Every structure is written in structure tokens, then in C-alpha cells.
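Query structure, 245 C-alpha cells:
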């Protein structure tokens, strides 16, 4: 599919948006969700869109919802609050909605790959429901998740998003206190948060915790890159370096 380097988007008609690549997290002004990697930006208005949101087709289908036809909306339809059925987060902007069944998907969630390849460790598969507890929250719960090929490692999409929010809150607090540049601490709090969960899960078995942390960090590296709207090897490598700090 051809990717335009610049164009005018209906949600921002006054200026052209230009395609950019960034390793710094941003908030998409379309879906109001986090992003990294390729985006369309207006420097004049400080306006950003995920590439996925900018190029969103009018309708899509998804293999998890075979009877649904999802239509694209610039804002949530109806008078009531809507929740994304993939990540269980509130819908605050761009959304895919099935009028017939009532399901909702953020554009980036709708585009999450069904399979993520990690040549160093394992492949991860997107699941509509968990068959085992998430390594972050310890629960099965609602919402999509990724599981490893060996079926030993599970992470909710919503849990990974919560880890990002916690990390960014720490980042901006540090910025306000001592002026550190965002890339120096970009996602460094993600791994410790998951490590604590794994330590509790394995009850002090140090070797098991170490192996699980290595696997979990590998999982986070590729899952985060997909959730942030750019599931590419380049972005995954960047996040992998940040997680290892």
C-alpha cells in the first residue's frame, strides 16, 4: 500500500500533515492513545496522528468478531461512554464500532498483529481470552492478551498500557524535577514493575524469576511496539535497549 509523505486529513483540514518517524512517545490527537514510530504531524498546531489512525479505512472486519462490520468514527457514537473491547480502556477519540453487536476497537488495537515474531525467544499470539493468568496482574480478566508459543507467558494488552502510563508519569515527574531528557528515562520503569509481579508469582525462586524476567522483557519489547502503533523490528529494538537500562 502506498504511503503518502504528506496530506490533509479530515480531522485537521487547515494544514497538511507530514509523515515523520519518532523514537519519543507521543499522544495521538485522533484516538488519544500513546504512540511511537511513524506518525503524521502538523508542527504548526502540534498535532499528531498514528499512521494507523491517519490511514484508517472506513470499515474493517476482524477475525475475533466474525459477524461484525466495524465502521470508523471520529468520535464515539451515542450518548454513553464506550470502552475498547481489546484493551478495556475508555474510547476518547477515533474508534471502530459495530452497530449490530456493540463492539468497539481503538484503531491501533484493531491493527494489532495476530502473531508477533521474536527470533531470539518465542513467537507471541494474540488471544481474545486468556486461558491462564496474566503475568502482570495475576488475573484472567477481560480484554485481549498476547501469549507465548510455549503457553507459559501471558500479558493483557490493557496491562501493558497501564505499565506505559505508570512509566510516563514517572518520566514527566523526573523531567519537572531535574530536566532530564525523555529519551534518557523513556521506558525504564516497565521492567521493574513486571519483575516484582514475577517475584511474587514464583515465591523467591531466583533462577526461575531471572528466566521469566528475561522472557517477559522480550515479550514487552515486541508487544509494546505493536500497541504503540508501529510493530516493526526497528522500534522493537529501540524499546528493547530502553527496557534493558
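Result returned for the query:
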Amino acid at each position: 500500500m502506498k504511503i503518502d509523505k504528506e496530506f490533509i486529513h479530515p480531522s485537521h483540514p487547515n494544514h497538511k500533515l507530514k509523515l515523520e518517524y519518532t523514537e519519543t512517545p507521543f499522544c495521538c490527537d485522533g484516538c488519544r492513545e500513546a504512540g511511537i514510530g511513524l506518525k503524521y504531524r502538523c508542527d504548526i498546531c502540534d498535532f499528531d496522528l498514528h499512521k494507523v489512525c491517519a490511514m484508517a479505512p472506513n470499515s474493517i472486519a476482524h477475525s475475533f468478531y466474525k459477524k461484525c462490520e466495524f465502521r470508523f468514527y471520529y468520535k464515539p457514537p451515542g450518548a454513553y461512554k464506550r470502552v475498547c473491547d481489546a484493551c478495556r480502556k475508555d474510547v476518547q477519540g477515533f474508534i471502530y464500532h459495530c452497530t449490530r453487536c456493540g463492539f468497539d476497537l481503538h484503531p491501533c488495537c484493531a491493527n494489532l498483529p495476530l502473531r508477533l515474531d521474536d527470533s531470539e525467544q518465542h513467537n507471541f499470539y494474540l488471544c481474545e481470552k486468556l486461558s491462564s493468568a496474566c503475568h502482570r496482574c495475576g488475573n484472567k480478566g477481560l480484554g485481549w492478551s498476547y501469549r507465548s508459543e510455549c503457553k507459559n507467558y501471558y500479558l493483557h494488552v490493557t496491562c501493558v498500557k497501564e505499565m506505559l502510563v505508570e512509566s510516563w508519569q514517572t518520566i514527566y515527574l523526573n523531567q519537572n524535577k531535574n530536566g532530564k531528557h525523555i529519551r534518557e528515562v523513556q521506558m525504564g520503569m516497565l521492567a521493574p514493575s513486571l519483575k516484582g509481579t514475577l517475584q511474587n508469582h514464583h515465591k523467591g525462586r531466583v533462577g526461575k524469576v531471572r528466566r521469566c524476567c528475561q522472557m517477559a522483557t522480550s515479550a514487552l519489547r515486541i508487544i509494546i511496539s505493536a500497541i504503540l502503533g508501529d510493530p516493526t523490528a526497528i522500534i522493537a529494538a529501540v524499546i528493547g535497549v530502553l527496557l534493558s537500562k
